[in-house]
Amino acid sequence: TAICQSITQLMMWYANNAKYFPPPSTAKDQFQEELVIKPLHSGDIYASFQFRTQWDTDFLLGSKVSHYRLFPKSLGQVISKFSVRELHISFTQGYWRTMQWGQPFLPSPPGAELWVWFQDTVTDVDLAWKELTNVLSGIFCASLNFIDSTNTVQPSASFKPLGVGNVTDQRFLRYAVLPREIVCTENLTPWKKLLPCGSKAGLAVLMKSEKLFHSSFHSQALHIRPVCKDWQCKSTSWELRQTLNVVFDLHTSGQGKREWSLFKMFSRTLTEACPLASSSKVYVDITDNPQLFELSPATPLVSQAVVLGDGRTYSVYDLTDHATFGQTHSLNVLLRWRAAEREMLRPLLHGERYVAGYGLQTGEIHTLVYNNHPYRAFPVLLLDTVPWYLRLYIHTLTVTSKGRDNKPSYIHYQPSKDRLQPHLLEMLIQLPPNSVTEVTVQFERALLKWTEYTPDPNHGFYVGSSVISALVPSVVAMDTNNTQERPLFSSFFPCKEESTYFMRIYTEPLLVNLPTPDFSMPYNVICLTCTVVAVGYGSLYNLLTRTFQVEEPSQGLAKRLANIIRRLRGVPLLT
Amino acid sequence: KFSHLKSYFESTDSPEHFLQNTKYNAGDADVFLSTKMAAPLTLLFIVAITIRAVLFRSSLADLITERVEVVSPLNAWKRVVEGLALLDLGVSPYAGDVFHETPLMIYFFHFVIDYAEIVFMVSAVCIVFLLQFRKQKYALEGDRYPLDCLELIRTPREMLYIPLKVAMFYLLNPFTILSCVAKSTCGLNNAVIALFILSTIKGSALMSAIFLALATYQSIYPLTLFAPALLYLLQRLYIPVNWRRPSFWLFTTQYVFMYLGSLAVMVCLSFFLLNSWDFLTSVYGFILSVPDLTPNIGLFWYFFAEMFEHFRLFFICVFQINVFFYTIPLSIKLKEHPVFLIFMQIAIISIFKSYPTVGDIALYMAFLPAWNHLYRFLRNIFLVSVVLLACSALFPVLWHLWIYAGSANSNFYYAITLLFNVAQILLVSDYFYAYLRREHHLTHGLYLKRKDGSEATLVLK
Q1: What confidence tier does A470 reach under pLDDT thresholds 50, 70, 90?
Q2: Which pTM was predicted?
Q3: Containing H/E element for A338?
Q4: Which of A508, A554, B250, B401 is the most exposed place for a label (fewest CB within 10 A)?
């Protein structure tokens, strides 16, 4: 029954999401910007930008809008044309190392991820999805046009709407991951252009590509969802959140010196807030201060927030306040480490994945899910999307925790169709406290047509990350009071209960080799195989059409010539 | 000249008493078999079952189950289990592209899943019982031949050993053993075909039509066995194959209706079992359009992996028509020898079908001892046997080099499949040649002479 309770909790959480919404405001359109800097225990620096544009218009009611103020017009048109209810897109370069860095504010898998909820008025969702991916591909200069039916799935439980509304019919959801997508400057530039101030003012001036991409991890994302306009939630407005997360490795870039500043990280300092922003803040996580590092310039503003189940303390620099910039008219936050790094508390939930087996015929996908909580068990939803050319055998699925069989309480499996749809495997697994749960499933590698291989076939094929979604027991009481202004980074996933918080983690993508034909052989193969068929045809044809006869000695050449002459002369032939 | 059998029975005052004796001896064969042959047959069964049981229990079973030569996407046991697992999950087994068995098969296995090993062993043994059919036939044919051909006609003693030889050839054939240990459902399809042959030989038109329909339902290709079955049954009923005779049309129509009727019943039953027509595309569409290019011993996989997209449909049509193409000419040529026609058809199917396995080859190879009177006319049996043996040994070697060691590539394995198929084609056409030649000798005498009296050589013209 404990399992059932927690399952219902998780389900309820999804169902009740809709009621909770970010802080309301009275202004028509609103723009907020925020930078969180968090020194990581590994000595790396995690910088997270969040930009939130709220747009008070109601597409859900079908009103036609032609006036745009802060909200980017290109996205507004996309939403209205394709009847999008929610849109979440992320481009990530590198893999987030949970065991070294802890949890990110907003998780994202390596490569490109796109998930969209359409309005229930859309009749042909597949067509809308196809067109939408092509349009987004143009907007973000990304290969999203490679999203087709072979990598699109409709998860039944893992991706529920995060905004208001109670559409939960998975027919209107599409989810796709392109694990091979390379993220670079050409994706960042259009992303920056969507900001009201562009990269001219505010926090966005820090985004110089040569620095952002010289990092261990880079992730830029965009989330559009309907949120409540005000308290009573009588009408909705659109929220656009643009986030950019970077992890800088200061060991390599800092020449061994353990200190950094905004200038060192971004080659820029801050001089002003975006004039259009209603709030513009820089947060520095000083929970570990002063044992670990020293921060300057000092700021009197300190904020407490509960983030990912943990109470954190932040120094806040308010960019809308001129005093922040001081005499030099610029803000260059500087951190200097004092002590060596310490062991970090292990994250409560952690996932890993790898391919086992050898050879190119079969293999086995192992997914390890760690519950590091000392005494609490909790359920997780595991979502696996496997391309059709790795043929999964669901009867080989095993889930074991602590050496014992751990039967998933819910399995949603959609088998693949060759060249049409991928495998989708969704499971609800109860994780015992302080345990490792191992999920294994065997697969067979298909031989593809020679035109279906990627240009570098022996590099292998990528399989997108598994998605693990869970309600994790929190260490401190979560802040469920939604009236209070909260920092943006702590308010994305709505929170309903004090004791748990929602978390989503992504495992590593897989790189799997497939058997390859010889790409230089098509002509030879066609010729040789046809020859064999012709040998079969020829020998049977020979026996079918001819009869046995006694061999008569053939006439000599002279006799045959003589007969020709005789025939011309009309005299009897020689025999 | 439509039926030699009939001419024999009409000419009761035939001078060759010897051959009449032959007939009586052959008629006693059943009794003889049950007494004298029982011991070696039993011993053979025990040996065969022991080998299988030991292999089932050994660690080799897993290895064999994965071999691409032994199982194809159509008949792999792993996929049957997967289909059942999908049913248990409440997903249609045809929703994905892993399961390609027919609905009747999945319901059959639903009940016998726990006894699968026994089912496969029993079916292997059954096939042997079912293939015990050729003991009467040839002895009856003897009288019409020239006297110098007596050495071409098998003695009753030779005939008696044929069942034992067939049994040995099938049960101890490594191909059959591998196929059985891998629990390839090919063994069951073979059993259905064997049942069809038995009921045809026994002259039961209804049962023959039902089993033929079942075989067709399982894998389409046995459709080509319709012609030999019809010819055999006509021959048995002394109905000449004559377009102007109403009796010919009457019986043909009857047989066609029995066949189509039972086929329709099976297809409809499948529909009602799963309440969807998905199985049609998933089973027959899969067989005909060859979407799964997993390597096997056939000609399709590499050809269509390397095919230019533009010509794919054309070549699929050509290759599939190729399997059915030989039916009509062969039926015309062999209309008086339907049993040999069955052999030819089964061999052609197993060579040119889209997902062949060694189990299919084992079925037509089981016929070879029945044609032991053709050995003297075979031209290159030694070469062909050596090639077949060498290829069988090289399959796993080159597979290992390509898939596991990475020191070879797909061309190596492909080359061996080509050679293997050439050898099979030569084997079949050699038997066909020998059969035709023996027939020629039976009508024209064994020692042919030219017009001038010198010894003649026989050529195909």
Answers
A1: very high
A2: 0.87
A3: none
A4: A554
